[in-house]
Amino acid sequence: MRFNVLGSMEINKDDNKSLPINSSKTGQVIALLLARRHEIVSADTLIEELWGESPPRSAMTTLQTYVYHARKLFSRESVVSDGRELLITRSPGYLIQLEKHEVDAWVFEETVEHGRAHLRSGRPEPAAALFREALRLWRGPAFASIQPGNVLQAHATYLAELRIRATHLRLQAEQAMGQYEDIIPELRSLVISHPLNESFHAQLIDALHRSGRRAEALHAYQELRAVLDRELGISPSPEVQLLQVALLDEGRPAGRRPPHHAVGGARPQAPAQL
Q1: Closest CA to 43 of 150, 55, 232, 137
Q2: CA of residue 141 relative to chain centroid, distance
Q3: For position 175, what pLDDT does the model report?
Q4: What pTM was estimated for this model as a whole?
Q5: Is the pLDDT of residue 180 over 50?
Q6: Helices H / strands E in the chain, number of each
């Protein structure tokens, strides 16, 4: 059995049947309890999620009704076959008691962390495999079938950011494996869908450069500079400016190369790992 939240919410039961969780208040309660891993969610937090700053007078009683419906759903659909209680009342609120492998978001976070450990240890191949495995769990935006309140939306945003970071790390691992040409199409798509994410732009510039496509790399840098100036009125970061310096220096005779601080005004610092 597994609860899936990385897309439309559903429960994959032990009999391999899928049970969708719709956009109801009961579904919203289940979603928030799943968002808080091994954590008691207070009744006050659940009420805030359900009604924001304008809860009804009967909020506590109504919340208890939604919890009752959630328990009935789990029982009626035989969500677990071992008879254990999933939704537990524990002061000051409620807790969903599940194992790590029983929620896809929890599996995603743990798999990404394992991939990070491999990448930090200089093992890009197993790192890339783990990042790919983690990213395959996504079927759409987190909690897509639920109308979230502010509390759940914050967690959905966190998961979306972690998804972007996992994508960046996977590409970093594949670059470390020398797969520059292979990742260029995906990077071109990513810089369009995330135009202000300098990390994706930097990876595209570097991949083009290392694939022998220097002119395209310079053009990619100019596109980044233009979008940052147009949208935010800023220049690329010093780390990205150093990529341009390397591209320009490569095309000049050694005696005609300007000092690095001449590019973009201030002298860029040594690049951090992107």
Answers
A1: 55
A2: 10
A3: 96
A4: 0.87
A5: yes
A6: 10, 6
Q: Name the DSSP letter for residue 255.
A: G
Q: In what order do the strands lie in the sheet with 10-12?
A: 2-4, 10-12, 18-20
Q: Which two tokens stand for residue 14?
A: 């032990």
| Pair 23, 146: CB distance under 8 Å | yes
3-state secondary structure of 273: coil
Rg of the chain, C-alpha, whole Å = 24
Q: Above 90 in pLDDT, residue 77? A: no
DSSP code per residue over 91-148: TTEEEE---GGGBHHHHHHHHHHHHHHHHHTT-HHHHHHHHHHHHTT--SSTTTTS--
Compute the distance between CA of residue 217 and CA of residue 210 in angstroms, rounded to an integer.
Answer: 9
212-221 pLDDT, tens digit per residue, is: 999 999 999 9
Is the pLDDT assigned to residue 264 strictly greater than 50? no
SS3 sequence of 151-169: HHHHHHHHHHHHHHHHHHH
DSSP state of 18: E
| H, E, C per residue of 165-206 | HHHHHHHHHHHHCCCHHHHHHHHHHHHHHCCCCHHHHHHHHH
Name the DSSP letter for residue 79. -
- Put the strands of the sheet holding 87-90 in their side by side order: 41-42, 93-96, 87-90
How confident is the model over 229-243, as pLDDT tens digits?
999 999 999 999 999
Is the CB of residue 95 less than 8 Å from the CB of residue 40?
A: yes
pLDDT higher than threshold 70 for residue 196: yes
Q: What are 26-67's pLDDT values in tens digits?
A: 999 999 999 988 899 999 999 999 999 999 999 999 999 999
